[in-house]
Amino acid sequence: MILDHGQIKALDRIHRLNIINSVSGIKPANLIGTRSADGVSNVAVFSSVVHLGSDPAHLGFIVRPARKLPRNTYENLRETGQYTINHITPAIAERAHYTSAKFPREVSEFEQCGLAEEFVDGFTAPFVRECTIKLGMQYEEDVPIERNNTVLVIGSVKLLIIPDGVDSGEGHLDLSATEAVGISGLNSYYRLEKFAQFPYARPGEFPDHL
């Protein structure tokens, strides 16, 4: 199948949405937890979390600011300055998926979707108890993307919660051991399986068979 620009534009809207969301490959599956200024917890599934730098440690994710639909995650983290990123596992994937429903701002997705809040001293934003790897984040800035009216939210990593035994000792985390999952498109979930680890690539240090 080969589709040019015109053929892509001519696709049914849902077909086009699904295929464009899938062709980028497997994306990280995370729950982002926030808490409003008036104390209502929120949690929502995101597949756009991306590494921006390790020193200082920054991550970003994409959000569409509110227009006709509420964006509780974005509104909450702007109000309080804090949010959490939690790796989804197969055991909670279905519950995590349904956090994408458009609940009213005063309704907690934790309660509606059967997920447990977990709080850590120094953080007002809730972590997801059932998740394995959890990050406490501090909101830093927005980068508007005018092309499609989205925003890159940039945050700094303030806290890491990682299960014992998954760090190689050099910082290489075995994500298959933590049962982290990935997302393709909007609603297809994949297990991760580590199959190789290669050394840092330097010119002149390639294996003989290459």
Structure report:
It is a single chain. The protein has 210 residues and is an alpha+beta fold. It has a single domain (27-191), classed as Pnp Oxidase, Chain A (Roll). It contains five helices and twelve strands. It has a seven-stranded antiparallel beta sheet with strand order 3-2-6-9-10-5-4, covered by helices on one side. A three-stranded antiparallel beta sheet has the order 1-11-12, with no helix packed on it. Strands 7-8 form a two-stranded antiparallel sheet.
Largest sheet: 7 strands, antiparallel
Q: How many DSSP helices?
A: 5
> Could you tell me the number of beta strands?
12
- Ends distance: 31 Å
Strand order in the sheet with the most strands: 3-2-6-9-10-5-4
CATH fold field value: Pnp Oxidase, Chain A
Q: What are the segments in which pLDDT stays under 50 over at least 5 consecutive residues?
A: none
